[in-house]
Each structure stands twice: as structure tokens, then as C-alpha cells.
Write a structure and sequence with these properties.
Blueprint lengths: L1 E10 L3 H12 L4 E5 L7 H4 L3 E2 L13 H6 L2 H9 L12 E3 L2 E5 L5 H12 L3 E3 L18 E4 L2 E3 L1 H10 L5 E3 L2 E6 L2 E7 L3 E10 L5 H8 L5 E12 L8 E4 L9 E8 L2 E7 L1 H5 L5 H15 L9 E12 L11 E5 L2 E5 L6 H9 L27
Parallel strand pairs: 1-2, 1-12, 2-9, 5-14, 12-19
Antiparallel strand pairs: 3-8, 4-8, 5-7, 6-7, 10-11, 11-12, 13-16, 13-17, 14-15, 15-16, 18-19
This protein binds flavin-adenine dinucleotide (FAD).
Length: 382
């Protein structure tokens, strides 16, 4: 059996694996990414692609840990998107250079105070009614509109961009984990060849748990289930916004992004709708979404639109009381590094964490032999 020696063997070809591959390769390390199905196929291509600065997590009125970790992320991504970072994302499509937050009624005093505090730090700015963009430039819109410094990217172009430069280091296969004395000693790929690495990076999203169990790493993860809503309609206006409500200020009632896939236009809906919707059947979730839309955007006609739903789990490290993690997660165990970005937006932070804690020098020569390459995955919610 052939043996491939590398500095880093990365299991999983979502944004985490592909980002680390690009970053470590640029730093001079030899790497290999092993993807079992298709690149980006799980959470990454299911994501809404929002690179947010944390405002949405701070709606409860407290500028919390989420906000502190995320606030620099849109700027950091802009550096990558303009080619001014070791991870060069110049070919990634920006779906929207801005993001909005709107209320269904006039804002409560609590929210006004909170937004005022962010205003001072120039994270949000109010939009005057004369400047309302579509679909808010309608007399029936009685709420307030704020612009956030967040951006929305096209996740498929992100996966393509991260793949292109270092494609020959990405292989398709099911890695069998071989352990010796409590650490990974090699990976056997589809019983065809062996990969021996200085360090093994687990970047397999929900798939990390199985590997952690095999290696007996004392770590647990949690899945956060979501039930997203998808609306297809050719006359839908572009909408990139959080709808917030006086009913519950702690999270956006609905988080909207707009996508064009195979020449069809879609709204992809997440936020509280997707979190609370895990208990609903698909039909009930659609019914509930339609009622919400009638309240939030009553002037938009959805009669020609096709509604569907999509279920998926977010992968996170286990936390007490199932709380949302506030940072990217990176842990080192022997020669293994376990990673969950917890948010696409936090991937640069995860990359920095890995790079500043590896303490090895580039060693193995990258001489990859011919292997099957995985395809770029399809958008899973279509
Ligand atoms: C519906 C939804 C919306 C989201 N929206 C946003 C958003 O707008 N903004 C934001 O910041 N974050 C968002 N997120 C979170 C973000 O998508 C994830 O944090 C991020 O994509 C995780 O990337 P990953 O590469 O770690 O995991 P994944 O994208 O899940 O990739 C894991 C990869 O590993 C592969 N794999 C699994 N097991 C194995 C194995 N044994 N061997 C080889 N390969 C394996 C899988 O096939 C997959 O390709 C969203 C998540 C969801 C689910």
C-alpha cells in the first residue's frame, strides 16, 4: 500500500477544511484534505452566507461575548475578499455588501437604546424613509430600518474559490482512522493508500463526533437542529435583512437572504423561524412562515411563490444548557486538532487559532499521487 506523508491531514472538505488547507499550504506546509462525498455539501452550502458582525446576537440589549468576537469579522472578510490576506477570496461572489434590520412596528424603547449604543460605535446606521430600498419603499411599511455593516457571500463560489488553488491536495474518500497508543497513527483511504501526517485536523462538522469516539478524545459535541424555509418566486425583490420584533427582541424573528440558483430566484429564511420550527412538520412550518410574512411584509404577494422547507443540524461543541457557542472552537489532543467554526463568519478566527498553536515547521514534501477528486457540492436546500 502506498503511503503519502504530509504535515497536515485534514478530514472534511467544508469551509473549515478548505480554509485550513489554503492557509497552511500558503504558509508552506504540505497538506491533504479528505472529503467523503462532495465539497461543502453539509453545513457550508446550507449556510445563508452571512458574514455578520454580531449585532443580531446582541438584540437582548447586552453587548455580549458574541458581539465582541464577531464585530471584526466583516472587515476581516473584506480583506480576504480583496486579496489582502493569505486566504485570497477574490473570486468569491458578494451577494450583498450590506445587511438590514427592520422592525414590524415602531421600535420599543429598549431596542432604541441598544441600537443607539451601537450607532455611536458606527456598527449600525438608521436609514431615512426617503432612502428606503426595495422592498421597504412601500407606504405599508410602518417600521424602522437600520443598515448593518454585514455582508452576504455566495457560499458555492466560496467553496469553488477555496478549492481552485490547491485542488491537487484534495481527495475523495472515506478515511479509516488507525490509532496507536491513544493517538492517530495514520489514515487508510478506501483501503487503497495510507496517509501519515504530523498532525490530523478534524474538520468534519457533525462527522467529527464519530472520529472523536474512535480516537477516544474526551470531548462531546451538540447538534443544533434548524428547519429553514425556502421560497421560490421570480418576482421576489432582493431582501437581505433581519426582521426583529417587539414580541421577542433576543433574536431575529426571521433572517432573510436572497439567492439565484439555476436561474431561479429564492428567499432562504432562517433565524427564530428555523429554530422554533424544528418541532413543526414541513406543512405546519410553511403555514407558520406564511402567517409571519403576512404580519412582517403584508404588501408582498406570495400567491405565485412555491414554498418548501429544509432541515439540517449545526455542529458545535457541547455546552451546558445547549447554549450557542460564542467563538470558533479549536482543541489540541496529542497529534489531533478538533475544529468547529460554529459560524462561517468565524472561520478566519479558527484559522488564526490553529496557525498560532501548531508549533511545527514545514517538513514533508508534498508529492501527492493521482487520486479521485471530490466534486463541489450542490446547494442542498433546493
Ligand atoms: C442552515 C444554516 C445556516 C447557516 N447560516 C450561517 C450564516 O449565515 N453565517 C454564518 O456565519 N454561519 C452560518 N451557518 C453555520 C456555518 O454554515 C457552519 O459553521 C460552517 O459551514 C461549518 O463548516 P465546516 O466545514 O466545519 O462543516 P461542514 O460544512 O458541515 O463540512 C463538513 C464536511 O466534512 C465531510 N465529512 C464528514 N464526515 C467525514 C468523514 N468521516 N470523512 C471525510 N469527510 C467527512 C462532510 O461531507 C462535509 O463536506 C449556518 C449553518 C446552517 C446549518
Amino acid at each position: 500500500m502506498n503511503t503519502q506523508k504530509v504535515d497536515f491531514a485534514i478530514i472534511g472538505g467544508g469551509v473549515t477544511g478548505l480554509w485550513l488547507n489554503a492557509l497552511l499550504a500558503r504558509t508552506g506546509f504540505s497538506t491533504i484534505v479528505i472529503e467523503k462525498t462532495a465539497l461543502g455539501v453539509e453545513q457550508t452550502l446550507a449556510s445563508q452566507g452571512m458574514i455578520h458582525g454580531g449585532v443580531k446576537y446582541s438584540l437582548s440589549g447586552l453587548v455580549n461575548n458574541h458581539f465582541d468576537t464577531l464585530k471584526g469579522m466583516p472587515e476581516r472578510w473584506m480583506k480576504c475578499l480583496s486579496g489582502d490576506d493569505p486566504v485570497d477570496l477574490r473570486n468569491v461572489k458578494i451577494l450583498s455588501p450590506r445587511y438590514y434590520m427592520f422592525s414590524d412596528e415602531s421600535l420599543s424603547s429598549k431596542l432604541i437604546t441598544f441600537l443607539g449604543s451601537l450607532l455611536l460605535r458606527s456598527h449600525v446606521s438608521p436609514v431615512k424613509s426617503a432612502d428606503f430600498p426595495k422592498p421597504f419603499n412601500n407606504p405599508k411599511f410602518k417600521g424602522n430600518l437600520y443598515e448593518l455593516k454585514d455582508i452576504v457571500i455566495d457560499t458555492r463560489s466560496l467553496v469553488e474559490n477555496l478549492t481552485r488553488e490547491f485542488e491537487t491536495r484534495i481527495v475523495k474518500g472515506h478515511p479509516e482512522i488507525v490509532c496507536k497508543e491513544g493517538r492517530i497513527s495514520s489514515l487508510i483511504i478506501d483501503r487503497k493508500y495510507r496517509v501519515k501526517a504530523e498532525k490530523y485536523i478534524l474538520a468534519a462538522g457533525v462527522g467529527n463526533q464519530k472520529i472523536i469516539n474512535t480516537v477516544e478524545i474526551p470531548l462531546e459535541m451538540q447538534n443544533r437542529p434548524l428547519h429553514q424555509v425556502v421560497i421560490r418566486g421570480k418576482n421576489l425583490p432582493d431582501l437581505f435583512a433581519h426582521a426583529v420584533s417587539i414580541r421577542d427582541l433576543s433574536k431575529p424573528r426571521i433572517t432573510f437572504t436572497t439567492h439565484i440558483v439555476d436561474r431561479h430566484k429564492y428567499w432562504y429564511l432562517g433565524g427564530e423561524l428555523a429554530e422554533s420550527g424544528v418541532k413543526r412538520t414541513s406543512l405546519d412550518q410553511i403555514k407558520f412562515a406564511k402567517e409571519e410574512l403576512k404580519n412582517i411584509l403584508p404588501w408582498i404577494d406570495f400567491s405565485e411563490c412555491k414554498f418548501s422547507t429544509f432541515r439540517i443540524d449545526r455542529a458545535e461543541p457541547k455546552s451546558k444548557k445547549n447554549l450557542k457557542p460564542t467563538k470558533a472552537f479549536v482543541r489540541f489532543y496529542e497529534n489531533t486538532i478538533v475544529c468547529w467554526p460554529t459560524k462561517l463568519a468565524l472561520t478566519p478566527q479558527l484559522g488564526d487559532d490553529v496557525l498560532s498553536n501548531i508549533f511545527i515547521k514545514p517538513n514533508a514534501e508534498p508529492e501527492l499521487f493521482a487520486a479521485e477528486r471530490p466534486e463541489i457540492g450542490k446547494i442542498p436546500w433546493i
